[in-house]
Amino acid sequence: MIRNVLLPEKVNDYYVFPQRAVGLEIRVNEVIACKSYMYGTTKTLEALFRETVPNEIPEALTTALANIKAKLGKYDILRTAFPSSLVTFRSLTLPFISRDKIELVLPYEVEKLLPFSTQDALLDFIITEKGTNHSTILVAATQKQHVAEHIAQLEAGGLTPTSIIVDLFAAYEIWKQCNAPAQTTAALIILGMNHINIGYIKNGQLVDCRTIKTQSEFTTETISSIGQTLTSFGRIGPEVTELFICSGNNLINVQKDLHSKLNMPVTILEGTSFINKEGILGNIEITNDALISCVLSLPNDASEYCSLMSQEFEKPSMNLFAQQLFTALGLFITTIIMLFTISQMQLTKVEMSIKQSEQKLKNTIQSNLNVSGERNVERLVEEAQSYVETQNRIWFAFSRSTRSSFLTYLEKLCGAIDTESTELKLKNLTITHDLITLKGEVKDIPALVIFEEELNKAQLGTVSRPQEPAFNITITLSKDVESI
């Protein structure tokens, strides 16, 4: 829930969360998929997968895609290459530098330039030049039915694309990263089994693309068609002075044939150059035919900003605002629950402390004030206060001489008893006109004998003989003592 909702997946070129992306290209006789891993500033090529597609088996492509899916494992993004042979290209210069603003006006700007209605079209573009107040873009337009068929092929194999990117845009990204001269006027060639896509690069900017239909073999007729296409580019700009081959099979032979027939430099774009320039990690060998799938799996202008996917082809899902709203609501509810739980725990502790204090108060009152029974604290305090008031009334009801005699008894007892040697703990002392009652305990039997002797030495009267250290002794006051 946190990922890309409360925190972004990526800040500039730094990946906050790890991400695995797959670039996939469907060729005539093969499916190629490259899987990359990005975290922090590190980019790593993890694996390269291939599945052959026999032409004679009708369901071969579906089977190949299903096998690729089984090999891929977990990933976050799936980008697929869309063939330029199904795309119409137009170059435009617009008075905007923001990609968002260009997207808003683009359908109206290309409406009269396309051979089909914009309502039936899906549009994409790359910015080839950005000035202070204008941008030059290359627009790619294709009919919705072609994208729908492409998605249907993938879904038949169990794959759902995140974005669909024109293969020429990916090839142009490779050309830019392979130290191509910025002011070069060149042609960028993508070789397929039954067609060749040729992109026209004028002063380092991709401005047009033409498609040549060919046979399965690279023949002299094919080279002648390429030459005618290069000549046609000269009508819209400078003549092509160099050829770059981005993707295809048997490129060494193709390079030799083009060089000898067209008499111009021909360079094969190597995967090693691209990987070294970008500082990409991994021990995967990227062959020329896998370059496009490789660049689609990595972060760059083509893979991150371009896509022919429209909302009508996207799977229903919550938008980012809805995800953020529900996440914030979930966090709010979680916080409330946590606060309620903590408050309940604190309240339970306070209640336990109160109960312990109440029990301690009950025990103190019951042991010291001769009040017993199971009562609540309020009732127990009321009875204790009543008991104290009764004792006070009894005390002050005696005459002054009587109170003085009581003090004399206490003085004699205090003088006769050694509390330290016997470890005396006196709990209750009751004095009446003719009787003194002592309740308490001493440490053991020898101490009890000493205590009894000390009481007799006080000469207050007849002392009852205690039997246990926990004693209840009565002293019957003699007549001569009562007259004190």
Describe this structure in words.
With 484 residues, the protein is of the alpha+beta class. It is 42% helix and 27% strand. Strands 1, 2, 3, 4, 5 and 9 form a six-stranded mixed β-sheet that branches. Helix 4 (167-177) crosses helix 8 and helix 10 packs parallel to helix 11.
How much of the residues is beta strand, in percent?
Answer: 25-35%
The percentage helix is 40-55%
Identify low-pLDDT runs: none
Number of helices: 15
| Main beta-sheet strand count, sense and barrel state | 6 strands, mixed
Note the overall shape: rod-shaped
Radius of gyration: 49 Å
Q: What would you call the structural class?
A: alpha+beta
**Number of E-state strands:** 18
Distance between the termini: 92 Å
Report the average pLDDT across residues: 84
How would you briefly describe this protein structure?
The chain is an alpha+beta fold and 484 residues long.
Notable traits:
484 residues; alpha+beta; 18 strands
List the helices and strands and how they pair.
Layout: E1 10-11, E2 14-26, E3 30-40, E4 42-52, H1 60-72, E5 77-82, E6 88-94, H2 99-110, E7 121-130, E8 135-143, H3 144-156, E9 163-166, H4 167-177, E10 186-191, E11 195-202, E12 205-213, H5 220-233, E13 242-247, H6 251-262, E14 266-268, H7 271-278, H8 291-297, H9 301-305, H10 320-368, H11 377-397, H12 400-416, H13 419-422, E15 425-431, E16 435-441, H14 445-457, E17 461-463, E18 470-477, H15 479-482
Parallel strand pairs: 2-5, 5-9, 10-13, 13-14
Antiparallel strand pairs: 1-2, 2-3, 3-4, 6-8, 7-8, 10-11, 11-12, 15-16, 16-18, 17-18
